[in-house]
Amino acid sequence: MLFERPMVFVDLETTGANAESDRITEIGIVEIDGDTIHEWSTLVNPGVTIPKFIQNLTGISDEMVANAPSFEAVAQETLKRLTGRLFVAHNARFDYGFLRNEFKRLGIKFSATALCTVKLSRKLFPQHHKHNLDAVIQRHNLPIDSRHRALADVKALMFFMRHLNDSLPLESVTEAINSIIQRPALPAHLDPAVLDDLPESCGVYMFYGTNDQLLYINKSSNIRKSIYSFFSKGIRHSNEAALAQQLQQIAHIETVSELGALLTETRLMKEHQHLHTTRTAKRNDLCTWQMEESDNGTLIPKLKYSRDLDFGGIKNLYGLFPNGKVATKALRSLADAHLLCHNLLGLETQPMGKPCKAFHSKNCLGACIGVEPIASHNARLKAALFKSQVQAWPFNGLIGVKEIAPLGARIDIHLIENWCYLGTIANINELDMQSIKHCKASFDIDVYKALSKQIGSGKLDIVYLDKITAN
């Protein structure tokens, strides 16, 4: 029977979606010990105004919580009901995160093993697409009187677990639960509590050693999953073993999207280049072909490196390559595919008027010896390079790429100019032009790849800041 283990079903109503800045307005708890069930709920005065759309969603108004106890007043009662039980909630990281933050503000350390019924539903019923509480209630015909009130929602979770207990093999349900609540084996010197606050959202995570020495940086679409995976897969390389031995602390930075995670990682990489010397070296070798016109009008590709040239502000650049060797190989392949003259492209150094080797092998139409007009060769070269042209920065100057998290829990405005990432702010009032002007950011291929296609698609919320920077 599933309920042999003490469980506590939890649902909260809150003023918003951010566990750090928003507050709890209602707590609903159902405790189960075998056949014994205890229900408890209370409104909570959050100490802040409840947004109107949250009031409309939950039915909890400012007037209703005006005379309700604060969380501090119900903290000990809440803690008593949670302690020593499997913490069960729908989207458990939300409820668990809010309670941990509320307890933390009071100097109370709270930790529990959490079971998310969203994940449980996905594991047991993978054929279904929707696993929100409304979908679960409807799919399994769970008895419920109302929605978006804490005790009513938490009862629905209890009924869901009863349904699983009655309708599915116990072994299947138990296996699914254990796979969800299983925690990775951490190094013995690391406090397991470091895993409790990890979000299941985009961002960047960092590993620190003694004296706050930064050891490792990585971006992720799911911070919690990535860190769990790091420790669950086992140590496979000597450098991972050394990292695990030195690790003393784990930190993370949440972002609205994977774009924000990439940009944040880019910033941190540049600030801590000693951690990624190989990647830094590769960035310094980044190169492209720039078309230059000779005295007789011949277009000649010249290899340019990002360390010497700002790729973002120039229009006649073609291809982005990790080093000169790769760039030359790509140009040679292009020439062979389009019967272009190797000599005019600088791939050979035959004397003027002499045919290139490609002409002898019938891979050149003879521009090197005047058989093909230079204008024709130029036109074919441009056509061959067209798809690989590096997109020049399409704005007059600085822009912001605005991202808003669900329910407005977070706003990020990423500052970009000439494919250079300059930082992230929460609102325009934070824009510090003096700092921007002195920023030494340079063209970043990762930023370019992430944004170049999206900018023309209309999918990004662009904030035009060039007028602000001109003032």
From TrEMBL:
DNA polymerase III is a complex, multichain enzyme responsible for most of the replicative synthesis in bacteria. The epsilon subunit contain the editing function and is a proofreading 3'-5' exonuclease. Residues 200-278 form the GIY-YIG domain. GO terms for biological process: DNA replication proofreading; nucleotide-excision repair. GO terms for cellular component: cytosol. The lineage of its organism: Bacteria, Pseudomonadati, Pseudomonadota, Betaproteobacteria, Nitrosomonadales. It comes from Sulfurirhabdus autotrophica. DNA polymerase III contains a core (composed of alpha, epsilon and theta chains) that associates with a tau subunit. This core dimerizes to form the POLIII' complex. PolIII' associates with the gamma complex (composed of gamma, delta, delta', psi and chi chains) and with the beta chain to form the complete DNA polymerase III complex. Pfam families: RNase_T. It comes from the Bacteria. It catalyses: DNA(n) + a 2'-deoxyribonucleoside 5'-triphosphate = DNA(n+1) + diphosphate. This is DNA-directed DNA polymerase.
